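Weekly modeling sync, notes
Attendees: AB, CL, MP (scribe)

Item 1: holo prediction request
CL wants a bound-state model with hypoxanthine before deciding which constructs to order. AB pointed out that an apo prediction alone won't tell us much about the pocket. Agreed to run with the ligand included and paste results into these notes for async review.

Input as submitted:
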Amino acid sequence: MSLHIGAAPGVIADKVVITGDPLRARYIAESMLSDVVCYTEIRGMLGFTGYYQGQRVSVQGTGIGIPSTALYVHELIHDYGVQTIIRIGTCGALHPGLLIGQPIIATAAYSDSATHLLYYPDFDTPSLPSDSLLQTTRTIAVSSGIPMLEGPVFSTDMFYHPDPLRWAHWQNKGILAVEMESGIIYALAAVNNVRALTLLTVSDNILTHSSSSASERQLVDEGMMKLVFAVATQEI
Ligand code: HPA
């Protein structure tokens, strides 16, 4: 049994969809999976296993930010042998033209987290997703008519940062959007030789200050959910 997930060995599938909000994890599992079993409720960080089109898959909440996400991803990989991790989440757009609801594939994750320097030489070197998951997502998104935008994201440790001018540096790098988890997910997946990819929906625009409500963020577009499970369960 692992320290934070605390579930028995074998109850988690080797393909896991992760999301920051545990209530979102429950919503996703109950909307998309059959024969759903909740395998953990420790600290309210819910985890579920069920079946998507006959294939076993799990959905795990991870909390907000890199430290919380890192410990769940670590346990999924080391204690439960998880091979495929797909994050479904929300992000703040860092481009004025990006609208609420725009789906994004995070093709790289820059970060300002000290944890980034445990794995990479500097903050100019992003962590990268699994190439095979990226290719699979592109193919399925095109055939499903989901207009995914691709680009690098920025995984920050500070949602409420004291410097209002800090974005210019990251905009100049072509960052599409800001979130708080993908940097460490990609790093841990890469060093442990498992697959990871993040799919995001724009929930607010940092530059224009438009945003969706907290309850809207808990819901996930059905097309995105189908895409995530189709990618997770694709044989690659
Ligand atoms: N900043 C950081 N993380 C986020 C944001 C944001 O604006 N929106 C959704 N996740």
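Recorded for review: The chain has seven helices and nine strands.
Action items: CL to compare against the apo run; MP to circulate these notes.
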